[in-house]
């Protein structure tokens, strides 16, 4: 077993633990819902809509920012003891947006008759699907095993690399620095490869027309530094674009700018919008497997990959310099 402090393992395994806890909670909710009675209902609304959702952002004082995401708004009505109720929750699983929007709309068109499962203790709580996705725990089990193997394998490999370098470089006390630089370089290089691969896939996505839209000025405070009572006041705007794919309308974010004054923010936006003018028609590359995912610049990812590879090369050069000149 690699000789690392327990806190390191706790930090590495914490994200996996959170995912497993969430899966356990949802499994419990799904099992409870299996006993819910059912009643016939009717879909009254089935449209795509854009909602503002909170996204974690440590750079802001509030700890979050708002982001536009696409959802399938499926509203249905059902009657219990002469009382008409309505709901818009499709499944037990959480809907985070930008996923299976078109599939849900096609499955539950307006006017269709559906089976509604309702909570007998709270009849206004209902779903159309009470089962979790098939194979969920199998996928989580395989994924967990892979993650644990990668973490332990990486830690073991780092320890072995450290021990080997300590015996073969002039300054054994710098072996940890060499391993650190090399590991960072490798991780960044792999990130570049993933970005490059995704950009190559995006070049084959279908292209549809879209329209650029500019948001109103947003005012917020950055996260405060230690000893400060309040963070720096910032002014920002968002650039989004709308498009339709297979008769479903989506909204996606193109860019986000922010500065210390409204005037500076406007100037930054003017530079950005020299390419995408407000209201302009643009070509949108849409992921056919998930139309809520799209991009205006399929080459941007490829260019960013070269930036990542350049950073990886710098770390590799630092590792080599310390190992040979330390």
TrEMBL record:
A Pfam family per the record: DUF3592
UniProt domain DUF3592: residue ranges: 40-132, 209-298
Keywords in alphabetical order: Membrane, Transmembrane, Transmembrane helix
Listed transmembrane segments: 6-25, 135-154, 174-195, 304-323
Name the record gives this protein: DUF3592 domain-containing protein
Organism of origin: Bradyrhizobium cytisi
